[in-house]
Structure formats: C-alpha cells, structure tokens
Amino acid sequence: xxxxxxxxxxxxxxxxxxxxxxxxxxxxxxxxxxxxxxxxxxxxxxxxxxxxxxxxxxxxxxxxxxxxxxxxxxxxxxxxxxxxxxxxxxxxxxxxxxxxxxxxxxxxxxxxxxxxxxxxxxxxxxxxxxxxxxxxxxxxxxxxxxxxxxxxxxxxxxxxxxxxxxxxxxxxxxxxxxxxxxxxxxxxxxxxxxxxxxxxxxxxxxxxxxxxxxxxxxxxxxxxxxxxxxxxxxxxxxxxxxxxxxxxxxxxxxxxxxxxxxxxxxxxxxxxxxxxxxxxxxxxxxxxxxxxxxxxxxxxxxxxxxxxxxxxxxxxxxxxxxxxxxxxxxxxxxxxxxxxxxxxxxxxxxxxxxxxxxxxxxxxxxxxxxxxxxxxxxxxxxxxxxxxxxxxxxxxxxxxxxxxxxxxxxxxxxxxxxxxxxxxxxxxxxxxxxxxxxxxxxxxxxxxxxxxxxxxxxxxxxxxxxxxxxxxxxxxxxxxxxxxxxxxxxxxxxxxxxxxxxxxxxxxxxxxxxxxxxxxxxxxxxxxxxxxxxxxxxxxxxxxxxxxxxxxxxxxxxxxxxxxxxxxxxxxxxxxxxxxxxxxxxxxxxxxxxxxxxxxxxxxxxxxx
Length: 609
Known about the structure:
By secondary structure, the protein is of the alpha/beta class. The chain has 4 domains: about 10-205, 3-Layer(aba) Sandwich (Rossmann fold), CATH 3.40.50.300; about 215-375 and about 385-405, Rossmann fold (3-Layer(aba) Sandwich); about 410-515, Arc Repressor Mutant, subunit A (Orthogonal Bundle), CATH 1.10.10; about 535-605, DNA polymerase, domain 1. The strands form 4 sheets. It has a 7-stranded parallel β-sheet with strand order 3-4-2-5-6-1-7, with helices on both faces. It has a 6-stranded parallel β-sheet with strand order 8-13-12-9-11-10, sandwiched between helices. A two-stranded antiparallel sheet has the order 14-17. Helix 2 packs parallel to helix 3. The protein is globular and about 80 Å long. Its EC number is 5.6.2.4.
C-alpha cells in the first residue's frame, strides 16, 4: 500500500487520493497558485479537469473549502465521488431533511470536513455566513470555489441572480483565496465574471478550448427524426447520449418516437413535474445506454463522463451554447460525437424569438450577432474545429476529424459575390447592417434605400442575380471569416477589416458550401465503439468489469462512474494487472479505491480467460 505523507505535495495528493500520476495542462499551476493563497479565474473545457483545480488545494490548505455549486445533482455526484476517494466531503441543499442538515452543520462547525458544497442561496443566508465567520475566526476556512461561474453573466441562458451576491466574499473574507471556474466564456463574458465577482486582480488561467476527442458533424435537415435515428443506430446503438430540442413539445414527441423505435429514451424540460425531472435525471446518471431528450434546461453540471454523443435537432442560440452543450459528450476523453441537423427555418425561428423577446435592444443586437456567428459555423466549408476555436480567440490547424475535414463539401465560387458585398459595405459608408446592404445589392427601392440616396451609388442592383437567402449566406461567411466586422455600438453595422484587402484586390478567392441534393444514400460504416480494446484483445474483461462496477454502484446507490470511469476500466482490461502493486499504477485508482476494490478487481481479472 502507498502511504500518504503528513505534509503532502500537490502531486502526492493527486496520485494517492485521485489516482493520477501527473497533472494536465495548467492544472498544476492553478493548484499551486490557489494553495498558496492566490485568487484565480479558470477557463477550462468540460472534461478538462476543473474540479481537481479546487479539490487538490482544498486538501493542501488547512480547514474546509466551500464550493458554490448551482445544481443539487452536481453536488451529489461530486460528493459521492470524493467520499469514494476517501475525502471528507458533504453538501448542504434542500434534498436533506432537517436532521441530516444539522449533522452536516455540526461537522462543518467542528472542522471535520475537507469540502462542503452549497448553493449560492444557502451560502448568503445570515445563518450560514455566521458559520463561515466562525471558521474564519478559528483559522479553518480554506478557500472559496465558485463553480459554473458563467452563471453570473446576465447575457447567458444559465444566469443565476444569486451569483451576483457572491461579490461580497472578498469584502467579508479578504484573506481567503477564491477560485472561479467555467467551461464557456468568450472575452466579454470573462470580463463580466471578473467584474461581478470582484476578481479583476485574480490570475487568469485560460486552457485550450479544444476537445480533440469530439467529432463535429452538421447535416442539413431532411426528415431530421429519421436522420437522428440513423445516426444513433449506426454510430451509438447502445450508448448514452443527449438530444437537444428547442421546445418542450418537440422534446416529448421526439422522446416518445425514439421509444417507439426501440430506444431507451426519456424527456426532460422545465415544464415536467420536479419529481419527474429528478427521476429522469437520476436514471440518466445511473443507467448505461439511456438517451435524454431535453431542452437546455438539462445539462449544466451534468458530470456523467461516458456520454458518447450530443445531438441537436434544432439550431442552438449561440456558439457559447453549442460549445457548452456539445462539451457534455466524451468527458472521459474517449471518442464522442457532436451531431446537429439544421435548416434555414431554424434561423428564421431563432430570429423571430429574438425580435419578439422583451429583452433590451442591446441584448437583441448581441443575440442576433451570436446567432449569425453560429450560422457561419454550420455553413462553413472548412474545418469546423478551426471555426469553433477561432470564436474563442484560439488558432488551430485543420483537425482532420470533423465532417468537413473527413468529407470536404462541394462548393461554389462566391468570389465575385463577396467582392460586390465588400464594395457595397464601403460605398454605403460602413454604416449599415446586412439587411439594408442586400436591398442595395438587389436593387430594391425601399424607403430606406431612397431616403439615403443609395439607388444612385455604383453598387445598387449589381447583385440581382442572387436571392436574399444566398446573399445572407455570403454576408454571414464574410463575418465568420473576419473579412467584415460587426459594430455593436452602431446597430450591427458592418465594416471592412484588413483581411478584406486581398479579396478586393483580386489576390484571394471566396468559396461557399453548395447545398446538397436531398438523397438517402447508403449508410456509412459504423465507427469503432469506444469500448473496443485495441490490439485484438477481446472486450470480455472490459464487459465483466463494467458488470462488476454496475453491481457495486447499485449496492452503494451511486452512479457507476463514481466507482470508476470507463477509461479506468479500459486501461485495466488492456493491462490485466496481476497484483495490487500493478493495479496501483492504473490511472484513476487512488489509495482509498485500491483498498476498497483492489482484491475484487483482481478476482474479476483472474476469472476472465
């Protein structure tokens, strides 16, 4: 057995408690910074190991770490996993009865906890703040971790007004380090998080947004239900997945239809009774191969690592939303897929929802721009991953693993159209949005065109050969490829960028995706299952280990991945360790799990030929 040092280092805690031999990316720098008492704002993709960035410092610092978490289900899973690893962790939320809650409070007051998970509403109550004051005064308040920090952003669909109150923490507890973490935040949202949480002076850690294990696939709608069914049956016939729909009605109809096709699917949306939602979420977390059909009400904080696919039957609202939702696939690092079916009607519907909302004009302008950027992604003819990462300010080579890289689409030469569009932007003074520019190009004598005298400029009517839909595609891609920029301060006016010069001078071309003829081609070969073991080793041992894990999880009333992730079982199946010492070298097996499960795992291995 490995022995934990009385004064452990960060690496020692990582190995002996969590079972990993090395940190990934920025993890070690974040851990050491926070453990030393520094504040941090952390952006790290889903599945990148954000939790370790505050869990390890919590075990290195004296006292109890307070983790602010927005969802009960997430708290339960995080605490279950920590307890399995031998950490003294608990949660305080509305799922506890009065006596259980008092027991947790006594443990907190007595300094018996390493980590305590609470909702922001609970943390800000006078009773709880008094308890925190006691911990501070006795030197037993280790740190504050604010998970899902994007909930503080009033621009996001996950906005939680209670998060705004967390700004008082540095005023009341100035000596206690704080770490705010999120998986999704563009530059504007990062600044908003820092400002609203008083973290302007915190050190920022921005990991790569790339999720190389996720394959991005986007198809044009052509009987989308059948397309979805074909995708699931061909790629992931018995794996867990999430299907997102825009409306509650569509969620229920899609879930019922998938059930009729013999798939294990459940609906989830905010209109369902709370006990039904809770029951469906619990089943999804604890059962293998279940498909959740949901609105965006489902997903934030879902910790299930073996979701093999996330599908969208409707266009999401923004790149941030798309990235966050697709990021729930493949948290274990094994191959997964983000699949979407979209159509022009999706864009029309989204625009109508924005226009008819009661939001401010500023919010509507930002929402329209974010939708346009997302449409630019789905219409792209080049690498999807490059487009996605570029939005977050990250450059990357073509991934070779998205649909556009694997099956380059047919394109049409839009060079002349793009030049006309850029010229029209310039001739109208770079003061107008796409709608007006399209009217000028098509020679439409609207009131606005006549009022500004734009029927007399050289670009009036030079684009009549293209319809409005094709012109909107041209402008969206000019924005997506950063040849024109959107001026939010001037009502989404378009202005030229330096990148437009080569195209205007005739030194560059511009090609756009050609819409495919609707056809029902032959099914493509199903991709290799993530559970396949390389090198010709049979999957029997892996299957036996999963069955053993399922029995253990049922006995302990926790999700199976709390016991071990698939990636750990896969590594065991490949290595076939013959002793406790060899088993200790498997990633994901800390001292507590080695002691609790080591002998049983070796027995399963020995019994499997």
